[in-house]
Amino acid sequence: MSARFTFEGLPELIQQFSNLGQIAADASRDTVRRTAEVFVGVVKAETPVGPSRKNKPGGNLLRHVSMSEDAKRSNAVAFTVKNTARHAHLIEDGWDHVGGKHIEGKKIFAKAGQYRDRMMDELSDVLPEKIEAALFR
Length: 137
Fold this sequence. Notes:
Distance between the termini: 38 Å
Number of strands: 4
Strand content: 5-15%
Shape: elongated
Radius of gyration: 24 Å
């Protein structure tokens, strides 16, 4: 007497699992992008705009806030928010005057952690449903 148990469709399942990384990347791209865009708005809202001087408009820091997708990383969905103004680090970290007076930094980019946490919460809610829907189409 014997009993045979088979798992039909294993090659198809393996193929679907091999595409799982791309499915997760596609499903998470909108959430990651939206989080980065919200953070860009926060950075721009909190970036100080100096007065116009010598026929040059103020807002040099503001004009240098940008967001880009990091397409070099094949194993991740990554968007970078940065301020490329030459003196952005002084506003972020603060500085010391020659006379000894310390100017505190605004720590704008330090707030990125809370947005990262919210993004991960949203991804943990959304990703399982999207992956399941893609696997069992």
